[in-house]
Amino acid sequence: MERREIDFTEHYDAVVEAMTSGGLLLAAYDSSGRPNAMTIGWGTMGSIWSMPMWIVLVRPSRYTYECIEHSGCFTVNAAPAAMAEALMICGTRSGRDGDKLADAALTAEKARLIEAPTLAECPIVYECEVVHCNDLVPDALAKEIRQSAYAGGDFHRVYFGRILAAAAAENAAELVR
Predict the structure, then answer these.
(1) Is the pTM of this model over 0.85?
(2) Which CATH number fits the domain that encloses residue 87?
(3) Is the dihedral of CA 144, 146, 150, 152 positive or negative?
(4) Which pLDDT tens digit goes with each residue over 80-90?
């Protein structure tokens, strides 16, 4: 899919809408150079430290965690609504067990500025370099969140990814809604 460079805020509303419906894929390479993607529904995009930033949460038990720890970067890819099956595959299977991208009929492409894959089928992509991360502190988390989101433990690591590049296809906002 051909994309042009955009300001990271250009399709903000469409991307937030996609995130709330599980239409975002976080992608990174593993230590052997194999691409991996994970469906995400928790994160935020904005400005921190006067930098455009994606903040994403990844559990240490996830294979994607290993990939980001290895590479120090990731992409956020907004998927079109028609990719519901691919999103389900990437959200329910582990990259440790096989090639999720092949199973989901997704194509990894080399990002422009970082060592992480973008996904050819996604009309909006963000290339992010990790500038900070921290682990959630269970005792500092509201009890209701701890009980509802972390009943089994496995608290997220929060990654602050500086957006180094953003690109979108011509009709990207309509495709991801």
Answers:
(1) yes
(2) 2.30.110.10
(3) negative
(4) 888 999 999 99
